[in-house]
Amino acid sequence: MIVTFDIIILVFLVIAAIISLSVKDLLAAAMVFGIYGFLICLLWAEMGAVDVAFTEATVGAGVSTVLIVATILNTRRKSTD
Amino acid sequence: MKAKIFASIAVAITGAVLLYAVSDFPRFGDPRSPANAGVEGGSPSASLYYIENTYRDTKVPNLVTAILADYRGYDTMFETVVILTAGMSIFAILRVLRRDDAPGAPASAPDSSDHSIDGDHHRIIVATTCRIAAPLIQIFALYVVAHGHHSPGGGFQGGVMLGASFILLALSGSLRDTLVRFSEQQYLRLAFIGILIYAGFGFLPLWVGRNFLDYGALSGLLMTSGEEMARSHSMLGVEIGVAMTVMSIMFAIFANLSTRGRLHGGL
Amino acid sequence: MQSFFQEAVIPHFNFWIYVIIMMVGLWSVIAKNNLIKKLIGLSIFQTAILLLYVSLGVKEGATIPVLDHHALIESSHSESSEGSGKKAIAINPDHYANPLPHVLMLTAIVVGVATLGVALALTQMIYKDFGTIEEDEVLKKIKALHDDV
């Protein structure tokens, strides 16, 4: 548990969440969501939850982004909001 | 626009209530908080028992694996069932079953979006690199599953990594080539076999009159030196079952989502 | 103002950020029009809740919840040579992070991605039936269908 590291990641986390929800290009939103997942993974490693961080690194930053991209390519890439 | 105003009001009220509640929380990182040490004057937190006695009971140094697969085996078993159910739901929602794309039969007319390695020269470097990388990822994933007792890792992480290696093959090469190696029949079978392995380790202790998922009773069957080692070895078996189910379902979800359930073509 | 920050925000800084992330997710679930945006918002909401849970198990000065394997083996060997048998090995719980929230959230993450897959499958079916993934257009088309009947 390192407080400075903690605060930096948390600030980036909020920024990543807001960006991924505000960009109009869904593919970009999916990519920023992957970055968000990886930041969460770093935060968990910092909290000492190594198993959870490992799972998040494989699931959040890997598989879920791929699944969202697969759906975007099969539907539509542009979003109205 | 009306929805946005309503959403802002609802979110503001909920956020204010939550922030008010947060002020009653223990300080971040407090070792004496109720979750870490239990209520004063009441019973101590369950986590204290786990930290103090896990190594004595099971001889597993990684507390998370021990709690996941042994103390809270019911929870993990039915979480795995939830994952299987999610995979089955996607199969029911998306999968298009036609006679001409029965498993095993080659697609008569290749889809125009199907870029095999021979057809698309831009892809050859990526496809070859991923083909070389996939077995290494799989070996590391098997290590993660098997070494989950001593280091971070276990069935869920290893299973997702194994599934991701197949997803990588399907993304870089083509889904059709990957399905030749790991067909729909095979992955659906593996998903159910994984659950059955887990349930089997649960039912075996019932034969000798012990509780469901009480692995200590398996010391005779597994020929271990004591109940602790039987629990340790049973955890490995359970983790393998979880890994099989998770791997199959992750690949099944990707295969169905990327092809709208037709299982040919692909991204 | 300064005393408010020192008393309320600083000791619970993490929790304040979690609530903010949670509310960002909740707002997008209610207000966003695109279904995939809604799902991303739902996932962000979910991770905020997981963060809240795991931070309850954090201890200052504690290490990861994996016991020092070699030290344990040595101590158990020295005990058995003294013939004391199965004596409890001294483990100080304050040295290890609380493993229980980790276990619960670990399975929740994997279940979360599986359910996200189900939601994305439903989105694809909506696109197949209505030709759009914008909520207001889908609702308009459903209304038109009902009016025809």
3D architecture notes:
The complex is a heterotrimer of chains A (81), B (267) and C (149). Chain A has three helices and no strands. Chain A has helices at 3-22, 26-47, 50-74. The mean pLDDT of chain A is 90. With 267 residues, chain B is mainly α. Helix content of chain B is 65%, strand content 0%. Chain B has ten helices and no strands. Chain B is globular, with a radius of gyration of 24 Å. With 149 residues, chain C is mostly helical.
CATH topology of the largest domain in chain C: Helix Hairpins
The number of helical segments of chain C is 6
Helix content of chain C: over 70%
Multimerization state: heterotrimer
Determine the strand fraction of chain A and express it as a percent band: under 5%
Structural class estimated from helices and strands of chain C: mainly alpha
The average pLDDT of chain C is: 84
Count of helical regions of chain A? 3
Query: Any guess at the CATH architecture of the largest domain in chain C?
Result: Orthogonal Bundle
Task: Give the biggest sheet of chain C.
Answer: none
Please mark out the parts of chain A with pLDDT under 50 across 5 or more consecutive residues, or reply none.
none
Largest interface: B-C, 64 and 60 residues
Query: Any idea of the CATH class of the largest domain in chain C?
Result: Mainly Alpha
CA-based shape of chain A: flat
Topology:
The complex is a heterotrimer of chains A (81), B (267) and C (149).
Chain A (H helix, E strand, L loop, with lengths): L2 H20 L3 H22 L2 H25 L7
Helix pairs in contact in A: 1-2, 2-3
Chain B lengths: L1 H21 L11 H4 L8 H13 L4 H9 L1 H22 L29 H23 L8 H18 L2 H7 L2 H24 L19 H32 L9
Helix pairs in contact in B: 4-5, 4-10, 5-9, 5-10, 6-7, 7-8, 7-10, 9-10
Chain C lengths: L1 H8 L3 H19 L3 H22 L12 H13 L17 H32 L4 H14 L1
Helix pairs in contact in C: 2-3, 3-5
Which key features would you list for this structure?
heterotrimer, A: 81 residues, 3 helices, 0% strand, flat, C: 149 residues, Helix Hairpins
Summary of the model, kept short:
The complex is a heterotrimer of chains A (81), B (267) and C (149). Chain A is mostly helical and 81 residues long. Chain A has helices at residues 3-22, 26-47, 50-74.
